Amino acid sequence: MLNNICVNPLLWIGLYIVGYIIAIVVLCSNDIQTIVENKMPKSIVRIFIFLTFIAFPVILPFSKGPKMAIPTFVAFTIGIFLLGVNLYIKILAQSQIGVSPALKGKEQLITTGMYKIVRHPLYLSNGLLAIGMAILLRSIYALLFSIAYTFLYLPIMLLRSQTGAWEREEAGLFHCFSANEDLSYIFLENRQLCQKEFYCK
Predict the structure, then answer these.
(1) How confident is the prediction for the chain on average, in pLDDT?
(2) Which CATH architecture describes the domain 2-193?
(3) Structural domain boundaries in the chain
(4) CA distances from residue 38 to 7, 41, 95 in whole angstroms, order as listed
(5) Residue 146: alpha-carbon gap to chain centroid
(6) Phi-psi category of 68—alpha, beta or left, where left has phi over 0 and alpha has psi -120 to 50?
(7) DSSP state of 7
(8) Where are the alpha helices (DSSP H) in 55-110?
(9) Rounded Cα–Cα distance for residues 89 and 29 (Å)
(10) DSSP label at 57?
(11) Which residues cross the membrane (predicted)?
């Protein structure tokens, strides 16, 4: 019976929805964000983020459900390609910001590479991961979920903007580079015109 529960797609979709709602609730309140950032162990936060936004999209395609009527070779080729692109983006973006994107001091402003093209390349890579896994295993439920999963990042980005999360990050970045007039100008110019994501590295 436990095996039947574990392969039920509704279980994993339900767990994702619960995690997503928790994330939205946190992002809707500056007070809750402050508590999470200052009082909750970082390891717990990382585990929550991993389970909600990485583990569930990977596990869901292995659950029971109807399969896409496409040849195995085609599904394998497209799936592996998308997973490869996901891995490339993730490695490239992560290598540019380091293991943790937290501000660590007055170092290097990142405005090149993936962060010159996409504001949140790691969000994009997660969407490709979900879609790639769904196609690779030909899971219709997972494919439908992956499309919704990708677009559900939009409210998260909007809420981060409205609650001041980006502004706090950008304020810290500007402070980080305010001693350098040229870099400060570049930061403000790119922030106003391109609205890309920047990190101190």
Answers:
(1) 76
(2) Up-down Bundle (1.20)
(3) 2-193
(4) 37, 8, 26
(5) 13
(6) beta
(7) T
(8) 56-59, 72-97
(9) 31
(10) H
(11) 12-32, 44-62, 68-89, 128-152
CA distances from 15 to 3, 135, 145, 179 (A): 17, 21, 13, 46
- Tokens 């709602």 belong to which residue? 21
Separation of CA 98 from chain center: 15
- 12-15's contacts with Cβ under 8 Å and 24+ in sequence apart are 12/56, 12/59, 12/60, 12/63, 13/56, 13/60, 13/141, 13/145, 15/51, 15/56
How far is it between the farthest Cα atoms of the chain? 65
Q: How many residues does the chain have?
A: 201
Show Cβ contacts of residue 160 under 8 Å, excluding neighbours closer than 6 positions: 27, 166
H helices of the chain, in order, are 2-6, 9-28, 30-39, 42-50, 56-59, 72-97, 114-117, 121-136, 140-151, 153-162, 165-177, 181-193
User: Tens of pLDDT along 1-14?
Assistant: 545 656 788 888 89
Tokens matching residue 188: 């403000």
